[in-house]
From TrEMBL:
Lineage: Bacteria, Bacillati, Actinomycetota, Actinomycetes, Propionibacteriales
Record protein name field: ParA family protein
Similarity field: Belongs to the ParA family.
Residue ranges of domain AAA in the record: 11-197
The organism of origin for this protein: Nocardioides guangzhouensis
Whole-protein residues included: 115 to 389 of 389
Function: May play a role in septum formation.
Length: 275
């Protein structure tokens, strides 16, 4: 495959939407795999206690595995918790264990509790501009958030520069987005001025229904160029892949799901401004 040009520095992208089941995890792992196939160096940070991204990338995440919990709560460094995905060659992952479920509460009494992830990323030698981090730098860090706006997602919003919001093409698609955008505003004002919603991706698009087309149009009217032209189709192959510990990029590379994630990755890279 033709390699994409690398961004000038690490793009830290937060995949968030407090609604569950909209395609955050599916988007994180498949975009990560697609970007890796296109020659980019990628790190996935699993911030959901369910560990679905870890599972989809075949990364061990039983209790006691070095994980995002250690990073946030125990002060571990990123080097200490990062591992390679056995599924996607060249993809680095920080897995999430179920311990992370307790972190929302444990973090409440911790100093600078909302900037733990930001500090850990900033301290890593492979995160930063080309001058700071050199040739070995990560081009993308994709952070998979849990379906809530608690301290875990807040850590991601403070650590990130760009936000990628997956929106499922169904009836209640825009419900809850107001609250999400208010949270982004609050974070910008008080914690992280650089944060911006750079990318919106329509997921589980069913071209046969008028409803999906209507919802997609509404999202585009509302968010303009922020919305990627590529929508991810609803496809059984996409939903089957994780049960084989695979991304759809290797499970069925020729499928509409895999091709759409590749196209979305290219579009995203084309819009890249660098961190
Ligand atoms: P979230 O992380 O936002 O909770 P997931 O990525 O886990 O959402 O997706 C929710 C469910 O929808 C999963 O069962 C997943 O396999 C399925 N799914 C996601 N994207 C697609 C798609 N494009 N086509 C079919 N099923 C999908
Ligand atoms: Mg998820």
């Amino acid at each position: 495959r033709p390699r994409l040009r690398r961004p000038d520095g690490t793009r830290v992208m937060v995949v968030a939407n407090q609604k569950g089941g909209v395609g955050k995890t599916t988007t994180t792992v498949n975009l990560a795999a697609a970007l890796t196939q296109l020659g980019q160096s990628v790190l996935v940070v699993d911030l959901d206690p369910q560990g679905n991204a870890s599972t989809a990338l075949s990364v061990d995440h039983h209790r006691g595995t070095p994980s995002t919990y250690d990073l946030l709560v125990n002060g571990a460094t990123l080097e200490e918790v990062v591992t390679d995905s056995p599924e996607v060659e060249g993809l680095a992952v920080v897995p999430a264990t179920i311990d992370l479920a307790g972190a929302e509460i444990e973090l409440v009494s911790v100093v600078a509790r909302e900037s733990r992830l930001q500090k850990a990323l900033a301290a890593h030698p492979r995160v930063g501009s080309a001058e700071e981090a050199g040739e070995d730098r990560f081009d993308y860090v994709l952070i998979d958030c849990p379906p809530s706006l608690g301290l875990l997602t807040l850590n991601a919003l403070v650590a990130g520069v760009e936000m990628l919001i997956p929106i499922q093409a169904e009836y209640y698609a825009l419900e809850g987005l107001g609250q999400l955008l208010e949270t982004v505003e609050m974070v910008r004002k008080h914690l992280n001025q650089r944060l911006e919603v750079s990318t919106i991706l329509i997921t589980m698009y069913d071209a046969r229904t008028r409803l999906a087309a209507g919802v997609a149009q509404e999202v585009r009217d509302h968010f303009g160029d922020t919305v990627l032209r590529t929508a991810i189709p609803r496809s059984v192959r996409v939903s089957e892949a994780p049960s084989y510990g695979q991304t759809v990029m290797t499970y069925d590379p020729g499928s509409s799901g895999a091709l759409s994630y590749l196209e979305a990755a290219r579009e995203m890279a084309g819009k890249g401004v660098g961190a």
